[in-house]
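Hi L., both proteins are below.
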Amino acid sequence: MSILIALGLVALAIATVGVSVAFRAVAGPRGSTLPAGESPSLAPRQAPAQGSSGAHVVVHLHAGAALAAQLREHANAAEARGLRPFFEFSARWCPPSRMFGELLDDPRMQAGLAGVYLIRAELDAFKDDPRTRELGTVAVPVFYELDANGQSTGRSITGAAWGADTAENMSATMAGFFAG
């Protein structure tokens, strides 16, 4: 009997993976994501054409290079693509940070990210970086609007702004923030 149950679970797992892969192949992501630490000039995947619905880019930074230099590089890349640069500090240990990352593929979040170049970094990886101290980060997740030089414009928002960690709350709050 236990062999039949095990075989049934294996078949279910294979079917689930097959459906997920098929959906990704048909639907594909609406935005572009650069691998962690990837330079925008070497990006293998491009964002949808400027002016297309939902065009955005999400990149993930790694420690090893100065945060200020990486923000400047990505802000310049955002400007070249006609996108608005924003920077997010998150943390793996923070439930709202994890939830935000998990919801990036949600259609509501995709709509809110239209026209945005989101630069994401783990706070713990940059805790000793001078730019982290300049930003005065005290909570995560925190999002900063950047100018074309990678400097904060002074506009920021934390995860506390959306209340409960739901797709509805996050997408509505962040769409408003990203829209200015």
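That was the first. Here is the second:
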Amino acid sequence: MPEPAEVALSQYDIQSVVGFAATCARRALPIYEMAHPEDARPHLAIEGAEAFAETGHRTAELRRLAWDAHKAAREVPASAATDAAMSAMHAAGAAFLHPLYSPHQVKHILGSAVHLVLANPKAAAEQIEWVRIHADPAVRAVLGRFPPPIAGRTRFGVLMVRLDTELRR
């Protein structure tokens, strides 16, 4: 049987994913804010994601906020703060999840959670458990409609596969 070209994906589904991603990013945010208290870009990206999760209004401004958080991550030395900013970027970017049957789309669903764990590697087991608990049935159902991600060689890729496997149980 051929794989579907698209998956069923409602506005509620996308809002649920973004709400989960924003919750993950908000948990990582203090790491960035402690290192860079003058830079509000990740905070604003999370606020944009939270607003989308509430209203479902996807705007060019939300895309800009995601890119701004990405720029914030690139402008700081590689650190936990970098991952915290990337978590914020993925939260805002999750609003742009597409119904394409592709493992790439899993990054929109789990990217924020992966960077949450990467931002605090000493507490990785605790963060993974937190993600498992906070991924509600709606998020897990959406994740289950997409093919699993392809095993990566980077810390991000390995952890994304681990979280994906955990949440599909």
